């Protein structure tokens, strides 16, 4: 893949995260031009932040010319203070690629060797070991990016087959040369929002498949509960005009077409209106789609952005604050709301299915209720996960703690805002998996009637891994197998809308 700085698309970022791309930069002129300016500043006598001064509260401290390389090395060593579990390989690939793309735009003053080191590491499959906690999302994602840089220098650690290994050994195995830093380069590498952006982008990419699967589980539940397809009439959604709602309603209509179950209850159905968890699916899921698309726009912009400090322009270096990750924090917080709501309405559909007064199915979806408990406690698990998501959905961006002796006195907390999305996605995937199992069981009770072709295909795929359960059995393994199918994206609704369009 040709890396065109500032022009990465969501589809390309998905390929980067999955390791389906090799990156190369064709035009080095902007990099060389800005590097020459920094070299001139380092050779001069005027104070330039990050080149010949200390950092943060120590910005007024001048550094001697013969100590400028040591200054950058010390910066990386002192800032590599993260804790917690390591970033996933997908997140690290995004961090390496977006940092390379940002530096390659030619406003950071690094030599081409720095950008090439990032590209070589990415292309070779080198995964730095980067703890996921320790950034407040302003002054850049300092600690995570410092760990990444330290690994490129051969002093940190690498992640190899899930294990921590000395980075120098892994660099040698991959025939990569350790990176040596010149003036400003350490600062350019760790200033920036690439860690929080990579975490949020990976969550967005994961959520896209989960969202499509939740559309499918909702459609399956609609038929299992013998719900009406009237609320999905295109005219209802056109007069409101919300684009996500319109698209989602179309998916539900397509999923319902041709169902014998639907035809069987068009006449003589005494229920005038379905519960909201069935009837309002386009309104809820459509709003989630619109939120996700807005987040995608913000995050793709950020993935292409120059977010370090100071920046090198034609004839001057200017200090600013592009490292403040507030856009990422807001995007992640909005994604959290969408992820939580997808799980919340799915949990309500499970509760509806096990209630015979609403679903008109056997109590708790079991053939002999009382002797058997059926899906009674599977729903409790879904409720626990949905409740946990509500706590996790509290906005991280409203919090701030001053750091660096009050020099950095307002921060975004974007890194946690993005990191917590992954736990929420895992929770919601399990909720949707439980719904799929419950809806499939409901459809089993309606045999010999057939659902629509798309729903029957989903039912058949689910049953290949999870047998019907009219009587009690050990259900947890079924939930895990179904959750694995959800996470793998093999139970998605056909023609589900994308987040990038």
From TrEMBL:
Main enzyme class: lyase
Protein's pathway: Amino-acid degradation; L-histidine degradation into L-glutamate; N-formimidoyl-L-glutamate from L-histidine: step 1/3
Gene3D superfamilies: Fumarase/aspartase (Central domain) (1.20.200.10), Fumarase/aspartase (N-terminal domain) (1.10.275.10)
InterPro entries membership: Aromatic_Lyase, Fumarase/histidase_N, HutH, L-Aspartase-like, Phe/His_NH3-lyase_AS
Pfam families linked to this entry: Lyase_aromatic
CDD domains associated with the record: PAL-HAL
Cross-linked sites for 5-imidazolinone (Ala-Gly): 138-140
Catalytic reaction equation(s): L-histidine = trans-urocanate + NH4(+)
Modification after translation: Contains an active site 4-methylidene-imidazol-5-one (MIO), which is formed autocatalytically by cyclization and dehydration of residues Ala-Ser-Gly.
GO molecular function: histidine ammonia-lyase activity
Record-annotated membrane-spanning stretches: none
Keyword presence, Lyase: yes
Modified residues (2,3-didehydroalanine (Ser)): 139
The keyword Phosphoprotein belongs to this UniProt entry's keyword annotation: no
Subcellular location: Cytoplasm
Annotated keywords: Cytoplasm, Histidine metabolism, Lyase
Main localization of the protein described in the UniProt heading: cytoplasm
EC number: 4.3.1.3
NCBIfam families: hutH, PRK09367.1
Family from the record: Belongs to the PAL/histidase family.
Entry protein name: Histidine ammonia-lyase
Biological source species: Roseateles asaccharophilus
